Amino acid sequence: MPQAVLLPHAKPIRELHGIAPEGLTDAILTATQPLVLRGLAAAWPMVRAARTSPQAADAYLRRFYRDASVNAMHGAPDIGGRFFYNADMSGFNFTSVRVRFDAVLDALRDHLDDKQPPTFYVGSTTIDACLPGFRAENDIDLGPRDALASIWVGNRTRIPAHYDLPDNLACVAAGRRRFTLFPPDQLANLYVGPLDLTPAGQAISLVDFAAPDFAAFPKFATALEHAQTAELEAGDALFIPSMWWHHIEALDSFNVLVNYWWRQSPDYMDTPVNTLLLALMTLRELPPAQRQAWQEIFRHYVFGSDGAEAGHIPPHARGVLAPFDGDAARRLRAQLLNMMRR
């Protein structure tokens, strides 16, 4: 299977050693730069099993399985582990199926020693629903953060560069993974594909990291100048800040990742992707002068907001310019839905 080139311009991600789970500080979990946390999950029984053998890791996972089904992705051997579009970008080069979790483990076991195996991948599956009891033995306490804990299981895979809105603590529980990260300002240099036809929900870079086509994607060379990379083993973790682009390779024939997602914002806030899609529909085709005027409006009320833009309005009359809470968000959401139905 093709592996991504060791990108010559990529800088190593900053590393911290000797941090125990109870030593995760707010400074670490609110960082705006990625951080490798070597050995953070080294004490997990899952990690100890994985360091023994893939078979031991498989057996450990099966201890917690209780007849749950999962969404799995399956690709033919010729995709080389890279989940992507089909040739004309009308669909994808893999199939998604709903199967028993132990059926995926069986498939991974049956192809463990294949030189060019089919690709199997279970992504973003809630641990407590799939493997009840697993987190009682393998978990990171993130304090007051309401984190979603998910598990990712597969063989050698390549996940194209994409971003996620939440902050992400990714813990390698079995196998090795290589992460290549780019800051949010590299968007224009990553050649991102469609927003509304995506392999797994997030828009992805169209660049093949195993064979970058610099003739088709010349600005990717600039992105590489800002890239950061790290290879993690079982027990290591990586903090990925919100909105950072990340390309992920699972390097072994049996890989398990546990990750925690959380947002540094109130639960009532909708995803900004909704705003982007509405902006494409309502702003992009305006004449340039009108787009510039709306850019200033957004700067004033949103991106440059310091809370003072409504200071001249009596508090009782500020409406949506007042600070939000859950009730106000629900009222505005209902109002917007009614407006969209017209």
From TrEMBL:
- Residues annotated as signal peptide: none
The record's InterPro entries line, in alphabetical order, gives: Cupin_8, JmjC_dom
Domain JmjC residues, every copy: 120-277
Any transmembrane segments, and where?
Answer: none
Checking SMART domains in the record gives:
JmjC
Pfam family of this protein, just one?
Cupin_8
Q: Tell me the superkingdom of the source.
A: Bacteria
Q: What protein does this entry describe?
A: Cupin-like domain-containing protein
